[in-house]
Amino acid sequence: MDTYEAGDVTLQKVREYVWEIPREGGMNTPARVLASERLLDEISEDKTLEQLKNSTHLPGVTKYAICMPDGHQGYGFPVGGVAGIDTEDGCISPGAVGYDINCGVRMMRTNLSYDDVRGQEEELVESLFANVPSGLGGGGVVESDLATVDAILDRGMEWALEEGYAVPEDLAHCEDEGVRHDSDPSKVSQKAKDRGKNQIGSLGSGNHFLEVQRVTDTYLDDVAEAYGLEEDQIVVLIHCGSRGLGHQVCTDYLRKIEKAHGGLLSKLPDKELAAAPAGSHLAEDYYDAMCAAINFAWVNRQLVMHRTRKVFERVFDDDWESMGMDLLYDVAHNIAKKEMHTIDGEEKELYVHRKGATRAFPAGHPEVPGTYLDVGQPIIIPGSMGAGSYVLRGGEASMDLTFGSTAHGAGRVMSRTQAKKDYWGGDVQDELAQQHIYVKAQSGATVAEEAPGVYKDVDEVVRVSDALGIGDKVARTFPVCNIKG
Prior knowledge:
Layout: E1 3-6, E2 9-15, E3 18-21, E4 31-34, H1 37-43, H2 48-55, E5 65-72, E6 79-86, E7 91-92, E8 104-113, H3 114-117, H4 121-131, H5 146-155, H6 157-162, H7 168-172, H8 190-196, E9 209-218, H9 221-227, E10 233-240, H10 243-260, H11 262-267, E11 276-277, H12 281-316, E12 327-332, E13 334-343, E14 346-355, E15 358-359, E16 378-381, E17 389-394, H13 398-402, E18 405-406, H14 416-422, H15 425-434, E19 438-441, H16 444-449, H17 458-468, E20 471-484
Parallel strand pairs: 4-5, 19-20
Antiparallel strand pairs: 1-2, 2-3, 3-4, 5-6, 6-14, 7-11, 8-10, 8-12, 9-10, 9-20, 13-14, 15-18, 16-17, 17-20
């Protein structure tokens, strides 16, 4: 059997692109990495593999903990990590969900072609930047109070529909139709609500962005047609999450769990994996609060999309319906959900933790929207500002290999601190402009942090996902203009 040596960790090759870290010591299961050797070289450069091994110490981990092809080091649990944990005798871990709860991405179609946009890129990027709130701190599409925040936490996209910021088709093309009914706003702290009330409809900073793209290639013509995608078409990608509210929910419950469940914490190799035992009141409270933050993030992306539609109406002097600005799909990246999965021939309910990973349900799965039931759930994989992004569909092998999951992006190879040492924002913008990609950001530092060179090769990430059958390649897009916080 082939092996791959990564410091103290030895991985055994199970088959092409599937590597296993055997169970040892306090590990409850093996761990698996889904990667080519080229990607494994990058994944093994930081603490990703150590964190993946650590995650198998969580009680109730089922089958194996998994690192996706875009995996990299996170806080406690690796980004690109997936773990299915028993809801009866396992646990739920805020660290395995992440601070930016329901950070996710959505793609909006248009019926505009690249020729319709050429020559207006700078006007478009300036207008988007002026009208879509971005950056650290407050400022959103709507001014709100705590009652509004509670309504959003409770009803998610249903609130957006009631208030005229969405149409029914937007909800139909969103994971879980944009609302987690398990939410309980009373489980979200006043401090979290205060942080969120002035950020509803805003990109934030870091790796969050709004990008106008053109479709350059389609691969599965029947699926591309079902998704309404064709070459040379303009689409819009929106990437953001639950802002300060979600961060505060994670922080609040990490501290509560550390205090209440110190016994369990003492058995875990990393404090950031702090977990509440299944059935405990903190497990229930965190799940309800997390679902509320999930609802907040869906509304956040919806309001950014609503404002984007208005900007396009002004720039192109047409209404958004005539321009076919319909939501293709919205997927969550940082989430834990109760899902039923077949384990050793038996149906079992699991908390499926996806941190920097995307749900990837195949054709025929009952949770795939009716529009896409025959072809599979859309998956959106953003690349860097200088590379393409991809649309995939949930692959047939995903339920068996990854609890119905795949990658969420290109995955970093460099820290933000190192990126700011190696890149200068102005230089990055100039280089992108030479490729006819127009970028506008709140600061040059943000552009430097997100320079194309700080990410893995998204083409390789997608190639591995496609080869494994967990996410099938449908279409590729390329940036036209991008705004960042």
